[in-house]
Amino acid sequence: MTKARVLMTVTVVLACCIASCTEQIKEPSVAGSFYPADGRVLRETVSTMLDAAETRPVEGKLVALVSPHAGYEYSGQIAAFGYKQLRNRDIRTVVLIGPSHHLAFSGASVYARGSLKTPLGLVKIDEKLAAEMINDAAGVSFLREAYDKEHSIEVQLPFLQQVLTEFRVVPILIGTPTKESYVHLTAKLTDLLRRDNTAIIIASSDLSHYHDYKTAVMMDRKVTAAVERLAADELERLILSREGEMCGGYPVLYTLAVAKNLGATNGVLFQYANSGDVTGDRARVVGYASIGIFRSGLTGQEKALLLSLAKKTINDFISTGRIPEVEVQDRRLAANGATFVTINRHGSLRGCIGNMQPVMPLYRSVISNAVAASSRDPRFQPLKKEELKDMEVEVSVLSPFEPLRDVKDIRIGRHGLYLVKGQNTAVFLPQVPQEQGWDITAYLENLATKAGLHKDGWKGAQLFTFTAEVIREGS
Questions:
Q1: Cys-Cys with 372: which of 67, 124, 302, 353 at CB 3.0–4.6 Å?
Q2: Domain locations in the chain?
Q3: Which CATH architecture fits 299-396?
Q4: What is the pTM (predicted TM-score) of this model?
């Protein structure tokens, strides 16, 4: 071997050694206590739990998971129900967001470099994405010490190593939440998941702690129902009032905000239990749940029910002054949603009212807006009984709003528009410009005029796009 080749070989070996030595590896903190420290035993334990979990097919795209983080003997089987949903899915980026149990700090800590180690091997950090999350001014930084004893994210890793193949993680611990960290992280995570169809967010949280069995089940039902409905305001109220408990409540609230920005429509409770179901001790229990957050379209049956509900509400209210009392168990319709109800007669608008944010169950939104469209649209007199026989009713179920980057991105017939400029606002549903035969310029000018601005007033305004599932007779 020549001297030059020997030197080259030595250089390469040294470079590899240096890279290996300088890679940051986070050693496991709770192997041997929360889960087995032996790799073979751990693999068998997780595999057994996954095999025992039922597969529950759910229509739609899985956007996020809520998973428990206690010792595997208590919550591992519950977690397996959620992780089994990840099998055979093309997931390459996992955002793990959990609470900090051992270190008090303000804002959030993103583990930014290297790998996380478990007895099953190394899980690499997506360093590029982690760096995008960090913003010291917003209170989002890399506090390595926050992870030294933390288990909320670590216990999720062996499940991921069993159900996924090539993936990287972005670990985030939430300390004391701040408005700045919440706004920054939810915006960054929304942007990440919008542009990467192979990414998912997993929130780590247990439920109520140390109540008797009956009390725990009652409290936990309220919490899981709020998550299934994507009712973040209700969930926060439950947590603050102590009617419900989640040790990872704020990580779940961050996750719900991101999921809703991505168009999530409802949650599905895969499995619930508490420690009393495992140990038999029902005096002081801890609750666990595995919940999937989905984005799914409406079925034909669900559409028919919403349209029928809108028409019945209008008929009953105009005829008798009463609003129908309805309870809907369908989890998609019981989840919070934003709708508009439109009434037409002989091809002309007769009333249109809606709510642009999902602040109530979808079916209740339809009921509320049906009443308002028939009686409180300021542009029209209330509907009369004799007009009921030939009214045409339309229900529009809205997607979340997205900031419009360029007016060239507007698609007539697909995009609704919402304009905000100072105190002036206006909205058009996606079907309006198509029905009116407008091009993009006319669409924007009419939107500005509706907001009380000059026709060019859309320039310099905040513009948001949204889509809608439009339900009408024969659709």
A1: 353
A2: 23-295, 299-396, 399-475
A3: 2-Layer Sandwich (3.30)
A4: 0.89
